[in-house]
Design goal:
The complex is a heterodimer of chains A (about 625) and B (about 300). Chain A is of the alpha+beta class. Chain A is globular, with a radius of gyration of 30 Å. Helices cover about 25% and strands about 30% of the residues of chain A. In chain A, helix 11 crosses helix 17. Chain B is built from nine helices and ten strands. Classes of the chains: A alpha+beta (about 625), B alpha/beta (about 300). The interface between A and B is large, with 79 and 66 residues.
Chain lengths: ~625, ~300
Amino acid sequence: MPVQEAREHRGLLRLITCGSVDDGKSTLLGRLLLETHSILEDQFTALRADSGRAGGAGAGIDLAWLVDGLMAEREQGITIDVAYRFFHTAKRKFIVADTPGHEQYTRNMVTGASTADVAVILVDARKGVLTQTRRHAYLTALLGVRRLVLAVNKMDLVGHARERFDAIVADFGEFARQAQLPPVTAIPLVATNGDNVATASAAMPWHAGTTLLNYLETVALDDEEPAKRPFRMPVQWVNRAQGLRGLAGQIVSGLVRVGDHVQVWPAGTESVVARVITGQDERQSAVGGQSTQIVLGTEVDAGRGSVVAALEHPPQVADQFEATVIWLHEAPLLQGRSYLLKIGTQLAAATVAPVRYRVNVNTLEQLAAERLELNDIGVCELALDRDIVFAPYAEDRALGGFVLIDRVTNATVGAGLIRFALRRAANLHRQLLDVDKAVRARQKAQRPRVVWLTGLSGAGKSTIANLLERKLVAGGRHTYLLDGDNVRLGLNRDLGFSAQDRVANVRRIAEVAKLMVDAGLIVIVSAISPFRAERRTARELFEPGEFVEVFVDTPLEVVEQRDAKGLYRKARAGLLKNFTGIDSPYEVPESPEVHLRTTGMSVESAALQLLAYLD
Amino acid sequence: MTTLTHLDRLEAESIHIFREVVAECENPVFLYSIGKDSSVMLRLALKAFHPAPPPFPFLHVASGWDFRSMLEHRDRTVREHGLRLIVAENPEAAVRGINPFDTPTPEYTREVLTDPLKAALDRHGFDAAFGGARRDEEVSRAKERVFSLRSSQHRWDPRAQRPELWQLYNARKQRGESLRVFPLSNWTELDIWQYIAREDIALVPLYFAAERPVVERGEQWLLVDDDRMRLLPGEVPTLRSVRFRTLGCYPLSGALASRASTVEEIIAETVVSRRSERQGRAVDRDQTASMERKKQEGYF
């Protein structure tokens, strides 16, 4: 390629390639790299050495090996993760998300599709449109990829027959209408020798359309006209250097100029743009895609999570949504559990309640579901602990796409696409009352708190709780004891012992305890509450210092041997399912306020130890 | 309205990454290797936080076998931009006789690069470290996230990577865990050179062809940078016009014969080049999948 071409300003296109096993996806990618001179001699040499060592491909070079990276996948002969590849032509730089096609890797396909402008979906001409083809098309369209290429590969193995190609295109077209997919461009290919990849195929003169590379070089992109959409910039960070107060962020859409009237959301405070600083330069304007700093003309309360938006086009603000959720983790999504939700630069606590349905991505059927497993896609209602600025995902990926993060492990467990707000947060006001917790606490002359006893069944929680309450009442305190077993007989009678129901059980107990603390009481909770995540969520309902976690630490051998209610025997015999400590986990508290090691300790001294802590 | 070029988009993405880390991490550090990628990354950091200097220190892991002109360039750069420099070393390795000539390369790398890096990260309690790695460099990097979690032992688990959708990076971690963050993930070698040309970024002179005293080993030219260079019987350093595509320890960094003495000429050579740049590094070629192994152990 001549130097002057390489130095020309080029655009950037992101694409995702997907296909079933053996459709020739890696070969097609290898071919694109080869045709654009992106494969280097020493990579070729190293490949030869590796092929020889693994004894697989033998003397011949398999183009697919150019793009299959990790040791693990070479050993298994599969592609296990999203890999990013790069090539360029005189017109554009291309970033390829290369994603595996197996069902269990929906996670990776969704990741690759989240940023893609174009999806290239491979079909083996001999096999035609498969279940996997439909799934890939559906997933990429769901993630907002607006241009699909149906690449019908291995045309040489069907005699370059036009009838075969037309039949596949018609078959896919039927599905595309049903699934409401964006427009599809179909191209017949032979990846192994490059027919219709970069050069028109002599063997398929009947194909009047474009080659794949030509399509990728010329297809129009949305982001080439960023100013068409209203201005939005999520604030990442406030630059306070030299008294600047620069709101730093990447503009997600639109155009901003010095002098523009803007609002800072979610508060909706108005101001005017005084300066635009991009890189180290003062500018008059900035556009979607650029990272910049905006200095406002008035002092406005803005920080990470704020969104600066055009005055004439305000964004939506809400705290409850219907969203499509794609589950990415081995541990399932549980209704009622609290997750962290990150959208743009905003962070909120989110609870799923309820899962409305799960989508069978092969048939597009809607199925009833109470939880989402790894690679499931479902439509859920989400309740957040605060207002966020958002847009429906179909309109704006940056303000409509979110990830869910586990609060304990910090793993990214889910991804979501906002469909619409369920109701505007502005319509909901918490009633403010004159008599509040502080007034009620003063009246009772005590500090309202919740003493939360967690531990295995039979550890002694209820016995200790009972004695503690007697001592508190004897000391003139106002108390209430919420016993897990008793609550299950009433308020939580509808709940069983699945992980799902345990989450709901603990959440309800915590909410009731919170009301009672608000009433000024000292609340003693005695509940197995086996999961860290729910105990943490419970803790977060209370003010700092109000939540006293007590680990009643009696070893499993001891409680099992004691087995006052005969439950462990039943569980061991398989008569009781989901029994904590036997076939359902107990997650030990990491830093409880009080740790009662009950072995060798009397109930009396345990209660006294708690009493001492509370004083 | 002019549309953004590929360099504009890469720049904006990298600046966004820098700011995410500063907003979400407590104690980030910039791993400064002095090379061209580090130099581009520094320019991006200066832009991200302008008018203040980047709000984190710069860590250089000095093997003791760095090219002399790299160290000169480092000190000049630090002075010019008012950066806070931390130098990590393992002087005890040299005392034990660890050197690039006798020690097998994997052990050498661990002793003089990986171990001092990990020790410095631990000593200063850094919870995020910016590295200049690019996904086009090497196959295992093609699959690494922009925000890459490391265990408290600094190990990378390629099978347990967090999904990274849109530009939503998950910077949350447990105490003791840390992040390696790669703002240049989506840049290629050509992008780097084009950006250096566009931004007029100063580099270590070794990147540009000049007459230098070298010896030929295998298919590589090695620079005789000081009198510690061990010559094989019959080897006599000769003056050749050479340049380097990557810089590291001088006895392990191969030069290539070239007359490209300007960025434009280097771009011309890079565009037609049929050799990938890590080819000059003996470190990566020693075992199949050696980079993946080293990364699992904590190397960049």
